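Today's session is about reading a structure prediction critically. Students often jump straight to the picture, but the first step is always the sequence itself: look for stretches that repeat, for charged clusters, for runs of hydrophobic residues. Only then move on to the predicted structure, which in these notes is written as discrete structure tokens rather than atom positions. Here is the chain we will use throughout the hour.
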Amino acid sequence: MSRLPSRRRQRSPGRPFGPPVGGWWRWLVLGGVVGPVAFVGAWVRCGVVTAGYSPVRGAISDLAAIGAPTRAVMTAGFIVFGLAVPLYGLALRRALAGWAWLAAVVCGVASLGVAAVPLGRGSDGWHGGFAGIGYVALTLVPALAVPPLRRLGRTRGAAASVVIAVAAATCLVATTLGPARGLFQRVGLAAGDVWLVASALVILRRVGLGSR
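Below is the predicted structure for this chain, in token form.
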């Protein structure tokens, strides 16, 4: 008697920024744009309006510290990022094989942790821990996207991801060296945010919000 063909599900290699199955997911993709834009917009605006604040030497978290005049706006930026990016991570999971999606989820959750324990409340160690986890996770998003992109022949996307990951990681290390920690923090985080926005826009361009 011949054996019946196996019904075991084969693991999908994933689509390089292609459309996941379903319709509701398309709105989750917007999280990859809304979160980074809200976060970067918050620290740019808060830094500009805060007298005596130096974006070169000052950390972004200083703008959300207890007693800071920009605390509400900067905290809102952390929260929007923390809610939007994990939603994008869920969409990214279906659009790209590998673990980049999980790094995006961790990054967003860590941002919520940063907002929950601001500087000046006596829990600066927890704040620094959440910030560090978020930064590392954001750096890992493009890094973890490189292998599946290469396997699928997306050489340009893979190369761009390598450059962004290396830039973000270099800036992460640089934040611990010298007085320009604020500058390196902003450059590194902006690099990771660029990847999130660019990848989300690629997905949206392929399928559109109105497609079924």
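Discussion point for the tutorial: The chain has one domain: 25-202.
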